[in-house]
Amino acid sequence: MTVTHSLDPKVYDVPLTARTTVPGQWTAAQVIQGKDSKKVPVQKEAGGSYVLYRVTPNAGVVRVTKAQ
Question: Whole-angstrom Cα distance, residue 68 to residue 65?
């Protein structure tokens, strides 16, 4: 996934919170954007499993993978 905007980055430089559905057997996910990498816990609700994480607009592709 890539998050972009055309707003002035000097004013709009706040990371956004993203939510991604993941397989139910995952317990954690690795979120990678550029050189940044963070392990995040999987949340569960009646509708399934998901992860919440921060993404920085215009900072490259975001990948969510199963954490080792």
Answer: 9
